[in-house]
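Issue: ligand-bound run for beta-D-galactopyranuronic acid - logging full I/O for the record.

Environment: standard queue, default settings, no custom constraints.

Inputs:
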Amino acid sequence: AEIKQAEAGRTHLTFREAEVEPYELPPLLKRADGTVVETADEWQARRAELLTLFEEHVYGRLPGPPEEMSFELLSEDMSAVDGKATRRKYRIDCQSGGRTFDFEFHLVIPNGVDPKKVDSAVPVFLLISHRSFKEVGRKKPIDDVLWPVDLLIERGYGTAIFVENQLSPDNRTAFDSGLVELHPQSDPRPADGWGGLAAWGWGASRVLDCFEEIDEVDASKVAVLGHSRGGKSALWAGARDDRFGLVISNNSGCGGAALSRRRFGETIAVILREDRFPYWFAPKFQDYKDREAGLPIDQHMLLALVAPRPLYVASATEDLWADPKGEYQALAHASKVYELHGHDGLDPERPLRVSDPIQTDRLGHHLRPGKHDLSRKDWTHYIDFADHLWPKP
Ligand code: GTR
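Outputs:
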């Protein structure tokens, strides 16, 4: 208990910069054997090392694709978005070790895409949704903030969505249904047992598997994104699966883009509280409650796992719970790996500016005025960034 106290320093929550205590980040480019990564080639071994650390200490281990997988078109509406788009619903069927599991996703693509024509397949934004299908796509106020399909279609993008709850229910009985049917876990889970975030991210990768078979989708240009808890899982999905062409974190905060060692806003001890979200993470993560200094990683390393692929981190001014500054700084520290690959970096000491998006060749960032939300404004910035990455022919 003494060590715990000593390492923790301040134990109350803070939203004041002056109360952030000095900390040292674990070195991103130093391998476990002490050697320093100096080239893009050498980064690969370090990347593998870090992936394993995040599995063991934070998100848990989860097998990759199922032994067998197929998907089926369940319905199609060619008159979506005032006749400008086609909306399809699919079911993905998975099988491993004699066990089965299925979940659904929706895909909306602009009408008139001719998959037979060269370069005509569309880039797609894939949203990991914490809202149900019933709510999304039918309620104007929700779609305007969470999933503005009209805007995406108008700007020439396809978009897809699946619901977290189908992979792993977002409540304390999380392991009753969903992916656990395919990958059962003991109760209590082992120290490195997977949690909700890993399960949701796994779902994103399976949807991407399907995209590789859907002619209208350009599977090399798929942006995975999520808001808040969905943003945490989008980052982990994008870190694990290097087929994602763009990874976007919207207000993901603690366990997402924010540096844990800053202990600003939500902390590990708070997010893991019994009545909150311990089931999102591996049980091992509990060891770092008020003991962030003992973590072998910090979240800048998660962001670096996406490198050199495009990465976007966004925050909102009033969302102090998610630590906007810690989110930006993690991105800037991660940018060292982009520099190693010959891309532009960001300065961690650069002061945050409201409504002044940063776009380098591979990195994006903005601080939107307002609350914890995925808003149309956020989407507009993401689409602008995608336009810049993937100019239309
Ligand atoms: C909060 C949680 C955050 C964030 C948020 C959300 O209650 O503390 O980490 O994930 O929920 O998902 O909206």
